[in-house]
Amino acid sequence: MAISLSYVFFFLLVPFSSASTACDGCLHQSTAAHSSNASALQYGSCGYGSLAMELNSGQLAAAAPSLYKNGAGCGACFQVRCRNEKLCSKEGARVMVTGLGNTNTSDFMLNSRAFAAMATAGMSRDILQHGKIDIQYKRVPCEYKNRNLAIRVEESSQKPYYLAIQVLYQGGQTEVVAMEVAQVGSLSWRFMTRSSGAVWSTGRVPEGPMQFRFVVTAGFDGKWVWVKRPLPADWVAGGIYDSGVQITDVARESCSDCDG
User: Fold this and answer.
1) Rounded to two decimals, what is the model's pTM?
2) Residue 104 has pLDDT above 60, yes or no
3) What is the Cα–Cα distance from 196 to 53, expressed in whole angstroms?
4) Distance set, CA 86 to CA 127, 172, 204 (Å)
5) Which of 35, 210, 236, 253 could form a disulfide with 231 if both were Cys (CB 3.0 to 4.6 A apart)?
6) Which residues have C-beta within 8 Å of that of residue 28, sequence separation ≥ 6?
7) What is the per-residue pLDDT across 140-153, written as a single tens digit (0 to 9) for each?
């Protein structure tokens, strides 16, 4: 299915003006809860599984619905700093969203590694004794030095009936909001659906090597990104493939309407 011009114009020309999008980079006040169940965040609703511990030094977070954004917030990075001056460092911790939080009173639920990383030297054990702590946080770019964005083929994929993929090592301060796939050399792009969290899927798998393109947003702007290295025809479920590109965009935004 070829993409329509109206579809392109919607993503590239219409500003994204919701408060949650426009103010991602602003400083917010909230609380963070501590989760001692490491697997709950590692295997959160974004679907990263065992790879989650490799994506952001293992500092993981489940986020409130306004930050999770129905899965578009998967992989987003936030600088989180607790406000207890006796326990906490000024730098805080950089955490990555791996799932949807299950508390209505905190914007983040952090694993032990992320929670302890907020502490000043020698105070990590003390801060872990707190089940919840007051924080300040803001959205920051994700950084993956010497790594391109990668495409992971989910284990549920099966030729030629079903393909599910996930974007890994996504840099910058962006969100993937649309994904398409086509056979290399073809203009018949097929729209993929977000099946869960960071996983995109299609029931019509092109033959041979495949090319991908997706729409990313950064603040008010959206743009197409084309994967430079196609998925080979002999792809295997569970395989991870270098895309040949990396995203470094940082949101351009105004925070005049933000609280905190």
Assistant:
1) 0.86
2) yes
3) 19
4) 10, 32, 56
5) 210
6) 107, 136, 137, 138, 258, 259, 260
7) 999 998 899 999 99
